[in-house]
Amino acid sequence: MTTDFGGVQKDVSILIERSNGSQHQALVTTVEQPNTVNCEWFEHDDIKGKGVSLNMVFNLNPHLRPQNFKPQNIKSEADNLSRKSVMISSGSRLKKENKVPTMAVRREVPSVSSRSESRLPTAKSSSSSKVRRTEVYAKKEPTVRNIDKIQNERIERRENQAKQRHVRDQVKAKHDVNDSQWEFAEMIEDWRDDNPAHPPHHKRMNYKINVCVRKRPLNKKETKNKETDVVTRSGEILYVHQPMTKVDLTKYLENLAFRFDYVFDLDDDNRKVYEYTAKPLVESIFKGTRATCFAYGQTGSGKTHTMGGEFSGKNQNCANGIYAFAAEDVFKKLRQPVYSHLQLTVSFFEIYANKVFDLLNNSQRLRILEDKQGKIRTVGLVDQVVNTVDDVISVLREGSRCRTSGQTSANSNSSRSHAVFQLSLVAPGRKTHEDRTHGMFSLIDLAGNERGADTMSSDRITRQEGADINKSLLALKECIRAMGKDALHVPFRGSTLTKVLRDSFIGEDSKTCMIATLSPGFSSCENTINTLRYLTSISYVQIIQLALDMPIA
Ligand SMILES: Nc1ncnc2c1ncn2[C@@H]1O[C@H](COP(=O)(O)OP(=O)(O)OP(=O)(O)O)[C@@H](O)[C@H]1O
Which Pfam families match (predicted)? Predict the structure, then answer.
């Protein structure tokens, strides 16, 4: 059965009673079956609203009653409905007054002390109520506005966090990366998707200084820590994705690009590395010149693996390193009748803390002397004649056993010395060693370029080792830069390493190659960049700073 609302309808002015007993006029906004009347009024520059029972309206406004109306006790109903009264929300007319739109705008209805404080919205003012409500909202106290703002920001932040968590979980499931690196891993992945790698040019170089780079796979420790690989190769360009964080904690990548003579792939083995680096130099020593091949890189990046042979646990296979491959090629060439007057001898020594030790003579300490002409002699160095590759391999085994090693943060069996393996072509029967030496190939496994962390080590010996290594690497850089000049212009006296290699830097025909080895993990990024910067300073290696989203050139 539908209720008869009598004269009570939308936009009609009615007298209402508040819970504190005060009475004032209000404007009917809606009537609801079976017997509720919703109304609004102005109070303290705000629009308030409330639902009142039809009985109460009829009792207070007798002129609006229908003809068959029977008066009832309205006291309890007034109390009941007044508890539901609420403030009108920011600028919107409430559909049901007992529903509050948001927490931020909820406020208790202030008590009205007198009728004069409340003003009745007229039918005219109701038609433009939208405009007025906006004005009213603008007049809201700043504190309330701030609470609204904070609330909205919090909701937005939580939504963003939830989104990020979702992306992170997806990325982590996809790449299985470290918790603190997943955003960078995703950025690097995106970068690789946008910049597909080019194949290398497969051209073997024969320049005076040849600089190549080899990155090793992530090792056991890095894999266990779920490290991200931050090094990408494309053709002859090597990219290092340096993780960066802005002051506002936004993460981004700095993509550094370096161009080399050759960049090896992860699956390129020692044989391939040899063919693109040391092999062309074997030819040159038969022409009577000096050649050098250096392995340079952070400790644990694979220098000894590349030069001396692959490791299986702590055992090294000396037959598949660059030392053995070079000896193999020298023997092949020696078989040619034109070189029948030549013989191959090998020496193997290490330079540790600026002192030289003979690895083929129980690490006997050797003296380095300079004669009147400035020539350097390593007094007492064993020069062993070898006739087969097997001879060379057994020499290498003996020497490697004697090499000084220690433990660094990156390699538990770190070589703390520069190891120098020399293949000399000699013509027996000549008087002096100088006369006898036709050509010499020095292959050098440099000590790990020290990280600040190791140089700052609290252990005095490690600290001193680090300082010596760094000093000799700086001297080496200066000598390589001066390579090909005469003895006066090559600063070889800067370290024992450069002294013993003096003749290799002098003369127009001398040639060198540098194999830089890299650890590709996130935690080695700084060292990797340092290694690459060292290379840029010795050669024509180009360094290109890329804008964040610049495509590969
Ligand atoms: N290209 C590679 N492929 C697979 N494993 C490698 C590679 N390069 C290096 N490794 C492994 O990494 C570990 C460290 O290598 P290595 O000892 O050659 O480093 P290093 O640069 O000579 O270090 P240090 O300067 O401390 O002597 C070894 O266990 C080695 O087997």
Answer: KIF2A-like_1st, Kinesin
